[in-house]
Amino acid sequence: MDKIRVGILGSTGSVGQRYVNMLRDHPWFEVAALSASRDSVGKTYKEAAKWFLDRDMPVECAEMKVIPADQKAFKAEKVELVFSALPSEVAKTAEAEMAEAGFTVVADTGAHRMDPDVPILIPEVNSEHLLALKEQRSRRKGIIVTLSNCTALGLAISLKPVQKGFGLRRVLVSTMQAVSGAGYFGVPSMAIVDNLIPYIKNEEEKVAQEILKILGEYKNGFKFAKIKVGASCQRVGVLDGHTEAVFLETEKPATPEEVKACMRAFEGEPQRLKLPSAPIPPIIVREEIDRPQPRLDRMAGSPERAKGMATVVGRVRSESALDNGIKYVMLSHNTIRGAAGNAILIAELLKAKGII
Ligand code: NAP
């Protein structure tokens, strides 16, 4: 089988490097174009990227020339599928131009998440939102599919089985977010070592809004879920892995054992279709009193290709200060599951469904 030729926008950054790393030896996709800012264009990838992952840069990418974030340059490389890990301010125009030119764009960025015909897709949670693509195709040649903010993504995965089993009335979340979530140059080490920062610009609003779109329905347009969502977001001195303390009010009463059972039984289309990057199971529920922890649990997930793709939940218990209250701690790898890994899983779903 010929592999689908893939181009990466923002390939030298925190998320871009994850793509390059995760796409090595992919059974369906091959990296055909690596793009970054003007400062990097013309350099080889190994000159342009300050590589920080513990596995060496794939040899097939090291000598590739970095090209501009431009649809003509991508066409010249015969790219069929574009992953975007651009800064949001650049992404809006660049992603729209790619889609107008006929590319399928899977975007990590916030630029188009709230467009009325663009899904925020988490393949296990809301694959039926792909129906929105029919409407999108009526206005342009290509399509954009987005994934949520990395903080909302793991949270939505943990909420979906509870929503299905018991209904959700209220979700409150307090986050402890990794520094890699702000990009390689995002948070100075002098600001974060021995410290935490109790503010992340626009994050709380994004989490609340995106969760409602993701957990809502698509029927001739998106119908947002009717759940009260509140978030408090903190940056902590952890390299990778967002940890979140979650408090819920369910519609129907549920015991912690029932919540754990429905999370453990949860699976979605990626598992049923046996997509190469699908974690089995998608949610790992731990019983130890002191898990999940980012250093120990962020790379959870099997098979090998799905390492870092599982959502890890622990400390599931009742909360008597809420009506039908449940609380737990959730961990998700922000640049794998919360970014490149989820995007690759979306692309696998699009391929399995014949959309690309
Ligand atoms: P980053 O480390 O700052 O990387 C940014 C990338 O974009 C670099 O490759 C950079 O190239 C390129 N770039 C910058 N300006 C450009 C321009 N004008 N034209 C073309 N390319 C340009 O950022 P990141 O953390 O990877 O995040 C990328 C996107 O993913 C953001 O929208 C972010 O919100 C989203 N996201 C991040 C995470 C996370 O956990 N980090 C999770 C989910 C989503 P140079 O190397 O040449 O500067």
Concise summary:
This protein is α/β, with parallel strands linked by helices and 356 residues long. It is built from 14 helices and 15 strands. Helix content is 32%, strand content 22%.
Specify the biggest β-sheet.
7 strands, mixed
**How many E-type strands?**
15
What is the helix fraction of residues, given as a range? 25-40%
How do the strands line up in the largest sheet? 8-11-7-12-15-14-13
Radius of gyration: 19 Å
- Class by SSE composition: alpha/beta
Q: Name the beta content range.
A: 15-25%
**What's the overall average pLDDT, rounded?**
97
Topology:
Blueprint: E1 4-9, H1 14-22, E2 29-35, H2 45-48, H3 59-62, E3 66-67, H4 71-76, E4 81-84, H5 88-100, E5 104-107, H6 123-126, H7 132-137, E6 143-146, H8 150-166, E7 168-177, H9 189-192, E8 196-197, H10 203-214, E9 217-218, E10 222-223, E11 228-236, E12 242-250, H11 256-265, H12 269-272, E13 283-285, H13 294-297, E14 311-318, E15 325-332, H14 336-352
Parallel strand pairs: 1-2, 1-4, 2-3, 4-5, 5-6, 7-11, 13-14
Antiparallel strand pairs: 7-12, 8-11, 9-10, 12-15, 14-15
NADP nicotinamide-adenine-dinucleotide phosphate binds at residues 10-16, 36-37, 39-40, 69, 85-88, 90-91, 108-110, 150, 180-181, 183-184, 334-335, 338-339.
